[in-house]
């Protein structure tokens, strides 16, 4: 158990550094909070990235039929390993970045016996590209406000997690 606690402390410290960096580099006029539902407590407690705290669905009702089918593939494939909020709220808008991240995830999924076919990967990438352009590029101001609010929430969640860790008795090192 002490190793797990030490690993959690390291992950939280790294994430706090990343969250603080992102907060300092947020869009200048993104100080007013946007209307976002709160993430469920279990997701809040397990969040590794600010994007984990955002919405985990996308309203695809106005998207073309093919993109709606791609969304179903995205939801099925990506939710096997992490919440969809991570990708839905991630700052990436370029297909090249999505290819980079999905390549790493594809390797990990393969080793866990959940390989993603090339056809499914193409559908996931097509959805992410279309959605990024529709929500993150075409409505960039709103997306920047959303990111700023999620980063603020993430910093608060990290502070709460650190306080909880500090209230716990120190782990005994050694045997």
Q: Could you say which structural class the secondary elements and strand pairing correspond to?
A: mainly alpha
The low-confidence runs, each spanning 5 or more residues with pLDDT under 50, are 16-31
| Tally of alpha and pi helices | 7
Radius of gyration: 18 Å
Overall mean pLDDT: 83
Helix content: 55-70%
Alpha-carbon distance between the two ends: 12 Å
Taken as a percent bin, the fraction of beta residues is under 5%
Q: State the shape.
A: globular
Question: For the report, how would you describe the main beta sheet?
Answer: none
Number of domains: 1
Strand-and-helix sequence, N→C? HHHHHHH
- DSSP E strands, number: 0
Characterization of the model:
The chain is mainly α and 175 residues long. It has one domain. It is 64% helix and 0% strand. The chain has seven helices and no strands. It has helices spanning 2-24, 41-46, 65-78, 85-88, 95-111, 118-137, 140-167. The radius of gyration is 18 Å and the shape is globular. The termini are close together.
Record keyword descriptors for this entry.
single chain, 175 residues, mainly alpha, 0% strand
Topology of this structure?
Elements: H1 2-24, H2 41-46, H3 65-78, H4 85-88, H5 95-111, H6 118-137, H7 140-167
Helix pairs in contact: 1-7, 3-6, 5-6
What does this entry show, briefly?
This protein is mainly alpha-helical and 175 residues long.
